[in-house]
């Protein structure tokens, strides 16, 4: 009886080893064939225990670019810094395209106002001074949610979110001293879309449009005392609403 049990246990152990070996090999082959085409990012959603291909790929991007912006009666050129994080489906969902969804934080640095730019908050809408302001003309922050589709590296996407802009508008003046500055804060909902191309999931090159209608929070202005009496907000007793905002951006980003 003891000899029979020993033989049975040895046979069972050998059978288990022979059965397990192909399963491990098949799992590795399936995972390798499903993921070999991806060079950057992190897999999410799924289990390695079953050997099944995971359904999503997670990407980070750090970007730098430039924009031309229209803010009411003024125009600016900026340098844009950004970071985005998004998921992209591995399985195609529509005509061979992969679904994308994520978020982004971007910060434009407005270098200077362009020729012909005028004030959005002074009663006479006087021209902005282009050469005599200190530092940069302003900065901003934009936080959108993005969704889109990718096909063989080419993609298109739409987004919607919120933006804040802090602008330093400098003016020529003969009554308030040389080149007084008014500090403005704009905010509002923005939306837009873009197209681009990803090179081997390493570099992303794209172009985007952003639009919206912003509010200048007059109570947060910090102008010279005389200029304060010349603002539209002082006349109406409220913030300046419905200032049109449009921005065209080009950028390049590193995917990791």
Question: What this model shows, in words?
Answer:
With 256 residues, this protein is an alpha+beta fold. The protein has helices spanning 2-35, 225-228, 232-236; strands at residues 42-44, 56-71, 74-89, 98-113, 138-151, 154-170, 181-199, 203-216, 240-255. The protein has an eight-stranded antiparallel β-barrel.
Radius of gyration: 29 Å
What amount of the residues lies in strands?
over 45%
**Helix count, per DSSP?**
3
| Biggest beta sheet attributes | 8 strands, antiparallel, barrel
What structural class do the secondary elements suggest? alpha+beta
Count of distinct strands: 9
Percentage of residues in helical conformation: 10-25%
Average pLDDT score? 81
Gross geometry:
elongated
Order of helices and strands: HEEEEEEEEHHE
How are strands sequenced across the largest beta sheet? 2-3-4-5-6-7-8-9
> Between the first and last Cα atoms, what is the distance in angstroms?
63 Å
Helices and strands, with pairings:
Blueprint (H helix, E strand, L loop, with lengths): L1 H34 L6 E3 L11 E16 L2 E16 L8 E16 L24 E14 L2 E17 L10 E19 L3 E14 L8 H4 L3 H5 L3 E16 L1
Antiparallel strand pairs: 1-2, 2-3, 2-9, 3-4, 4-5, 5-6, 6-7, 7-8, 8-9
Which key phrases capture this entry?
eight-stranded antiparallel beta barrel, 3 helices, 256 residues, single chain, alpha+beta, disordered N terminus
Short structural description:
By secondary structure, the protein is α+β, with helices and mostly antiparallel strands. It has helices at residues 2-35, 225-228, 232-236, and strands spanning 42-44, 56-71, 74-89, 98-113, 138-151, 154-170, 181-199, 203-216, 240-255. It contains three helices and nine strands; from the N terminus they run αββββββββααβ.
């Amino acid at each position: 009886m003891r000899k029979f049990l020993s033989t049975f246990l040895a046979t069972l152990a050998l059978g288990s080893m022979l059965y397990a070996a192909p399963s491990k090999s098949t799992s590795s082959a399936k995972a390798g064939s499903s993921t070999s085409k991806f060079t950057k990012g992190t897999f999410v959603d799924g289990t390695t225990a079953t050997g099944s291909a995971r359904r999503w790929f997670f990407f980070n991007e750090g970007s730098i670019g430039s924009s031309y912006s229209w803010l009411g009666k003024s125009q600016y050129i900026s340098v844009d810094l950004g970071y985005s994080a998004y998921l992209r489906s591995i399985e195609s969902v529509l005509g061979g395209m992969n679904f994308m969804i994520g978020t982004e934080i971007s910060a434009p640095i407005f270098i200077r106002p362009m020729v012909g730019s005028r004030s959005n908050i002074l009663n006479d809408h006087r021209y902005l001074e282009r050469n005599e302001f200190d530092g940069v003309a302003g900065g901003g922050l934009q936080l959108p949610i993005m969704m889109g589709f990718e096909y063989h590296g080419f993609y298109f996407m739409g987004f919607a979110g919120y933006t804040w802009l802090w602008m330093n508008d400098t003016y020529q003046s003969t009554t308030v001293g040389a080149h007084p500055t008014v500090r403005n804060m704009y905010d509002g909902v923005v939306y837009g879309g873009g197209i681009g191309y990803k090179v081997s999931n390493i570099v992303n090159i794209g172009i985007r449009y952003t639009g919206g209608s912003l509010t200048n929070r007059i109570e947060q202005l910090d102008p010279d005392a005389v200029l304060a009496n010349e603002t539209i907000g002082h006349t109406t007793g409220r913030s300046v609403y419905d200032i049109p905002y449009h921005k065209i951006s080009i950028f390049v980003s590193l995917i990791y």
